[in-house]
Write a structure and sequence with these properties.
Elements: H1 19-39, H2 45-52, H3 56-62, H4 66-91, H5 94-120, H6 127-150, H7 160-173, H8 176-194, H9 198-205
Helix pairs in contact: 1-2, 1-4, 1-5, 4-5, 4-6, 5-6, 5-7, 5-8, 7-8
Length: about 210
């Protein structure tokens, strides 16, 4: 009898993107972020591709249109912010991780400010995009704040998201470098204000 050959498994997992393709995608996102912030939503996609060192066909393989590229840039910035929360939580004491992540959040706000014209140009609006990023940011600040409270070093009687709202309000309310400097000072003030001083801890123990 002839030998029966087995068919290859048709349900094999999809192949991951090649390393060079992923590098191209990330380079395009980084280049597009700067281009949209500097030149607005009408910057040429050909210019973005050229600046990233790839062909326009490569850009379209990753991002089928301008709106997809703008949305991808914003999602990538949010993902980097979320990853920073995990990384800081793993490698730093709880209060230090909370403070340092709030400083990273200031840079995130600055990037978002620079991209507002491009984001506002997306057809169909940004409500879904902002809703998804808002959930991710809330989860990150709650994780970091809960760790800091559990450490016994701070007391937090407000929604952790209110900390970010305060920082964002200062960062958005001032122009240029002054806004970042003011927001950075506010982070230090907020964290110091949340710390449980030894005298307060002793007093609470007698209540």
């Amino acid at each position: 009898m002839p030998e029966v050959t087995r068919k290859k498994d048709q349900t094999a997992a999809p192949r991951k993107p090649r390393a060079d393709a992923e590098r191209n995608r990330l380079r395009l996102l980084d280049t597009a972020k700067g281009a949209f912030a500097a030149k607005g939503p009408d910057v040429s996609l050909e210019d973005i591709a050229q600046s990233a060192g790839v062909g326009i066909g490569t850009l379209y393989r990753h991002f089928p249109n301008r709106d997809a590229l703008i949305a991808a840039v914003y999602r990538n910035e949010t993902e980097q912010l979320v990853q920073a929360a995990r990384r800081l939580a793993e490698g730093h004491p709880p209060v230090v991780a909370l403070r340092d992540w709030m400083l990273v959040f200031i840079d995130y706000i600055a990037t978002k400010q620079g991209m507002y014209p491009a984001l506002n140009s997306i057809g169909g609006g940004t409500s879904d995009l902002y809703a998804a990023s808002g959930t991710q940011i809330r989860d990150s600040i709650e994780m970091l704040a809960n760790r800091a409270v559990a450490s016994g070093e701070i007391r937090l009687d407000i929604d952790p998201l209110d900390l970010l709202r305060a920082v964002a309000a200062v960062a958005n309310g001032s122009a240029g470098a002054n806004g970042k400097e003011a927001a950075t000072r506010l982070v230090e003030i907020l964290v110091e204000g949340l710390r449980i001083k030894f005298g307060e801890e002793q007093a609470d123990g007698h209540n």
